[in-house]
Design a protein that fits this description.
With about 70 residues, the protein is mainly α. Helix content is about 90%, strand content about 0%. The protein starts with a helix and ends with a helix.
Length: about 70
Amino acid sequence: MKKGILILALILLVPALADAQCAMCKAVAESSNGAGSSVATGLNSGIMYLMIFPYLIMGAVGYAIYRHKKQSNP
């Protein structure tokens, strides 16, 4: 029971801690975009780069499950 409460507390608290970082990144991107810097473009590229890997992994796992089920049922 205590383990479940601890996990629930962590799940609820982690987004609150990560929210502060988003405001700082947004402020840096907005201030650099007005100055003509490419920091905002770099941040967007980095986000896209980091975002693609979970989708690739989920797609590979899904394809492997699909292929395994197709081979199991002739």
